[in-house]
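To assess whether ligand presence alters the predicted conformation, the chain was also submitted together with S-adenosylmethionine. Input:
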Amino acid sequence: MSRLESMRRRLTAQIDGLNWALDQVADIPGDMLELGLGNGRTYDHMREYGDDRRIWVIDRQLNCHPSCVPPEDSYLEGEADAMMQALADRGAKIALAHYELGIGIREQDEKEAEKLSEYLVPLIAPGGLIVSQQPIVGIPEIDGPDTIAEGRYLFYRQPG
Ligand SMILES: C[S@@+](CC[C@H](N)C(=O)[O-])C[C@H]1O[C@@H](n2cnc3c(N)ncnc32)[C@H](O)[C@@H]1O
């Protein structure tokens, strides 16, 4: 498979996975969280197709398309561990988190996801979901939509 085809599969999985997850959390109270604003593509998708709930956004730098700059009061600029701690300190509860931090080096990205799980998992409301490119620990993994090949995108649900 070429890198171009691989990218197409990743984008399709992101769209299908986020659409599925948005539907799944429709009745779960809480905010949303975008971990890794980047260009702003997935944030924009959550904003476009989610309901009107608040979307917290974390990135160490603001580097997105001008149309995707989050509202100042929902954007936390800094390292993800410290920013998630700040969210916990203000009592935020998250119904849906999308995790796309990383630099594309598998071993390093997985290690970081494992380390950041201890900040992320406690933020998730009972019944809330994490949709992730990287493995998250400390929360049960669930099956996502049938259209996504196993392991291409990962889904987790907080018990309760
Ligand atoms: C792959 S991009 C995200 C792509 C984005 N979801 C999109 O659809 O355009 C990853 C982003 O995560 C950020 N990032 C990576 N590790 C981070 C960390 N530990 N703390 C904060 N931001 C981080 C990078 O600055 C980068 O903007």
